[in-house]
């Protein structure tokens, strides 16, 4: 996220102002919600590299006001402002430099390709970052891959794996054997829309696999991962709320 502001104090004050919750509806099911946790001002850009100290001190902040829906178990930031965020080439959220994380990613790629036969099908990744995981899964399966991410800053690709510097559109997944969406759903203003659009894609008899991965809200809210309470996360999913979201699509 790379919002820049020329008057951070005034804009932050407006963004951090309390938002009345009367009439707030659940973004997953439309039910009534109840507030349960608040941070009045947190940085909006948690994955942008600032050029200097002054730029960092002037960073945009926003309000985290988590609400819970008793009907579907949904949890989201009721004060989230889409205008505060911009995903572009300054956004860098990759953890691939971590040996521990990359070992996990490699094991995941092996599990997916060994469990499900890719055949000659293509792999599509929504929010692929710099494409390293997509490269790995296509290498293991011998598949062609297509990734989509506005924060991609690598060279143009024209080989077996391509990456486009833009947001994913549902039509991009037509004909795919495997659709991957790792740690993207929690950033979306309307996560149900994406899943519903994917469910409606015509695949002409193909048995399409879909792999979604999100942070576990039960672990975050239990206190084990408090640093995952960040402004870019619109939603926080538990097993129950994520299952319900897919059923409604």
How is the secondary structure organized here?
Blueprint: H1 8-16, E1 34-43, H2 53-57, E2 61-68, E3 75-77, H3 99-115, E4 122-126, H4 132-141, E5 144-148, E6 161-164, E7 176-182, H5 191-199, E8 209-213, H6 217-221, E9 235-236, H7 239-248
Parallel strand pairs: 4-5, 4-7, 5-6, 7-8
Antiparallel strand pairs: 1-2, 2-3, 3-9
Helix pairs in contact: 3-4
Order of helices and strands: HEHEEHEHEEEHEHEH
Q: What ranges have pLDDT less than 50 throughout 5 or more consecutive residues?
A: 1-11, 13-22
Largest sheet: 5 strands, parallel
Distance between the termini: 28 Å
Q: Beta-strand level of the residues, as a percent range?
A: 15-25%
| Adjacency order of strands in the biggest sheet | 6-5-4-7-8
* Outline: globular
Mean pLDDT across the residues is 85
Helix fraction bin: 25-40%
Label the structural class: alpha/beta
Count of runs of 4 or more consecutive helical residues: 7
What is the CA-atom radius of gyration, in angstroms? Answer: 19 Å
Number of strands: 9
Describe the structure.
- By secondary structure, the protein is an alpha/beta fold.
- It has helices spanning 8-16, 53-57, 99-115, 132-141, 191-199, 217-221, 239-248, and strands at 34-43, 61-68, 75-77, 122-126, 144-148, 161-164, 176-182, 209-213, 235-236.
- The protein has a 5-stranded parallel beta sheet, covered by helices on one side.
């Amino acid at each position: 996220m790379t919002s820049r502001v020329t008057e951070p104090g005034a804009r932050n004050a407006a963004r951090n102002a309390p938002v009345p919750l009367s009439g707030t509806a659940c973004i997953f099911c439309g039910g009534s919600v109840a507030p349960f946790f608040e941070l009045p001002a947190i940085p909006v850009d948690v994955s942008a590299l600032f050029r200097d100290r002054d730029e960092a001190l002037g960073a945009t902040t926003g309000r985290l006001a988590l609400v819970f829906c008793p009907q579907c178990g949904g949890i989201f930031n009721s004060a989230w402002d889409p205008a505060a965020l911009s995903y572009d080439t300054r956004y860098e959220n990759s953890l691939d430099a971590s040996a521990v994380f990359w070992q996990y990613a490699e094991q995941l790629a092996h599990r997916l390709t060994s469990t499900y036969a890719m055949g000659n099908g293509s792999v599509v990744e929504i929010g692929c970052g710099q494409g390293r995981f997509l490269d790995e899964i296509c290498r293991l399966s011998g598949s062609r891959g297509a990734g989509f991410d506005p924060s991609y800053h690598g060279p143009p690709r024209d080989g077996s794996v391509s990456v486009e510097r833009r947001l994913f559109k549902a039509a991009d997944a037509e004909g795919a054997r495997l659709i991957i969406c790792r740690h993207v759903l929690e950033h979306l203003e309307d996560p149900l829309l994406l899943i519903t659009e994917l469910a409606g894609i015509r695949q002409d008899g193909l048995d399409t696999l879909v792999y979604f991965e999100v942070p576990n809200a039960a672990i975050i809210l239990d206190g084990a991962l408090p640093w995952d309470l960040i402004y870019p996360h619109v939603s926080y999913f538990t097993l129950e709320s994520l299952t319900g979201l897919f059923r409604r699509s």
